[in-house]
Amino acid sequence: MIPFNKPPYTGNEEKYVIEAMRSSKISGDGGFGLRCQAWFEQTLDCKRALLTPSCTHALEMAAILINVEPGDEVIMPSYTFVSTANAFALRGAKIVFIDIRPETMNMDERLIEAAITSKTKAIVPVHYAGVACEMDTIMDIAKKYSLFVIEDAAQAIVSTYKSRPLGTIGHLAAYSFHETKNVTSGGEGGLLIVNDEQFVARAEILREKGTNRNQFFRGMVDKYSWVDIGSSYLPSELQAAYLWGQIESIDELINSRLHIWELYHELLLELKMKKKIDLPTIPNECIHNAHMFYIKVPNLDVRTKLIKHLAADGVMGIFHYVPLHSAPAGMCFSRFNGEDTFTTRESERLIRLPLWYGLGSQQVKLIAGSILRFFS
C-alpha cells in the first residue's frame, strides 16, 4: 500500500535531537528553539516568531491577543480544520462561516462584507493547500471596518502572495509543523507569527503561563511574576531540535514536493481536458509549496468508488474536511452567512493523493495510472 503520508526525515534530525537530549536544557526556548525562531524572524521579516506545541496553540494565543470575548463574531470558511474555529469558540465567539471559491477552496473574499456586523472582531483566512487567499482585498476590508486579520497558514510555509510570504500579511498568523506538513517538528508543533508590534510583549507573556519571565531573563525586571492570563505554550527543545534538522533542508523538502506535484499534474492533465476531473488552480499572483495534490471528481458517489478503486490498487487516497457548519458543534457555535453554494458540494468532490518527501516518480505514475484506468 502506498501510504497517504510519511513524515519527512532528512538525516540530521536524529543528531540534533540527541544533542538536545544531552544538553543541560530540554524545556522550551533552549538553543535549538531560539535558533528556529531567529530563522523564521529573519526569513519572514516579522516582528516576532514564537514556537508553540501545535498550530492549534498558536491560533488560541492569537484569539487571546486580540481579546476575543463572548458575543464577538469571527469570519472564516467552513472548509477548514476544527482548530481554526475552536480557537475562537473557546473564547466565547460566534463563528460566522462564509462560502468558498471552488477554484482554490479558499474563502470567497467577495462575501466578507455581507457577513460583517457590529459584533465582528476578526477575519480568519485559511490558505488551503498552501495557496493564498486574496489577501489585498481581505486586508482592505479589515482596515475599512477596523478588524483584525489572523492568517491560518498551517499549510502555507514558504508559499507567497504577490511575493509576500503567507503568514506575514495579517496582524497575526499560525504555521503548523504536524507530521503531515511540509516540515515537521517531530509529529506536532506550530509557530505564532506576530506582524503587529502591539502584540509582541503580550505574546511572550501569554506563552510563559502569563508571567513576565522573558523580561526577567533580559534584565528588564528584577523578578518575574504573574501579570496576565496565559498557558504553557512552549514546545520542548526536542521538538525544536527536530525542526531545525528540517529547516536546514527546507529547500530540498519543498523542491521534492514540487516535483511530485508537477508530475501528478502532467500525468492527469488529459483527464481534466476530457472534463473527467478538475485539478488544483494556482492564481498568477501565488507561489505555492506543493503542500498537497488533490483532484475533484464529479460527485460524492464517484469519489467513494474511486477511493475504493485506489485502495484495491494499493493506493491510499483520502477525502479531506467535512464542512464545520454541518458538524454537531458547528450547529451550536456557528452560523453560515449566505448560501452554501460551493462549500459542501466541492468538499464532496475532493480526493487528496499521496504526496510526501521521498515518494518516487514510479509510485506517482502508478497512482496516476490507477486513476486513468478508473475513468477509462
Verbal overview:
The chain is of the alpha/beta class. 39% of the residues lie in helices and 14% in strands. Strands 1-9-8-5-4-2-3-12 form an eight-stranded mixed beta sheet, sandwiched between helices. A three-stranded antiparallel beta sheet has the order 7-6-10, with no helix packed on it. The two termini are 23 Å apart. The mean pLDDT is 97.
Lay out the secondary structure.
Layout: H1 12-21, H2 31-44, E1 48-52, H3 55-65, E2 73-77, H4 82-89, E3 94-98, H5 112-115, E4 120-123, H6 135-145, E5 148-152, E6 160-161, E7 164-165, E8 172-176, E9 190-194, H7 200-207, H8 213-217, H9 237-247, H10 250-273, E10 286-287, E11 293-296, H11 300-312, H12 328-333, E12 334-336, H13 343-347, E13 350-353, H14 361-375
Parallel strand pairs: 2-3, 2-4, 3-12, 4-5, 5-8
Antiparallel strand pairs: 1-9, 6-7, 6-10, 8-9, 11-13
Helix pairs in contact: 1-9, 2-9, 3-4, 3-7, 10-14
